[in-house]
Amino acid sequence: MRYGIDVDGVLADFVGGFSTQIAEFGYTINPDSWGLGLTKEQEQTGWNMVTVNLNFWTGLDVLNQFPHERVKLTDVVYFITKRKQTPGRSTDRETALWLRDKQGIELPTVLAIPNKGEVCRALKVEAFIDDKPENCWDVMDESPATKVFLMNQPWNQWDTRVTRVHTLEEFFDRAQG
Predict the structure, then answer these.
(1) Can you spell out the DSSP letters for 17-44?
(2) What residues in the chain have per-residue pLDDT under 70?
């Protein structure tokens, strides 16, 4: 089977790392709100901090452990992210190092790209998971053969269009079922 797995909000705690960045300006986030309860200006300030932070991505904490036992030797797993470039290593490399060091995934295939749907279609991804409904919709529209799942998070409760899962184990069970 071919899987597409988002990193932030599925495996990595982006919200925690982003929250730390914007706290330097006295901003606080509301993780129950899409957009984290920030104004556009506050959010842009946070992104400006992220994009100048040397190797920001490798410093994120683990949100969910990757269930290695659910992946068969014949499976292909693509880690598909929209992460922005920061100073230092390339986004792909930094993400691969994070997956190795924090998740124990040797030689991960990381794709840092803007359009997840096109990539899922081109790579014939059979099951995809993300925490952002818009990314799921993109995959649903561009790659109709792909089973698409939304990782349940406080900030995406408003979406009712995508099949919701609560764990990566549930994702693999439903994808394989």
Answers:
(1) HHHHHHHTTT----TTSTTTT--HHHHH
(2) none
Domain that holds residue 31: 15-50
The answer, as to whether pTM is greater than 0.85, is yes
Shared domain check, 23 and 9: no
Q: In the Cβ-directed half-sphere of 171, how many Cα atoms lie within 13 Å? A: 31
Backbone angles phi, psi at 162, to 5 degrees: -100, 140
Q: Which two tokens stand for residue 20?
A: 């730390």
Same structural domain, 19 and 86: no
Q: Are residues 37 and 113 in the same domain?
A: no
Q: What share of the chain is helix, strand, coil (3-state, %, to 5)?
A: 40, 15, 45
Pair 24, 110 in one domain? no
Q: What is the dihedral angle through the alpha carbons of 109, 114, 118, 121, rounded to the nearest 10 degrees?
A: 30
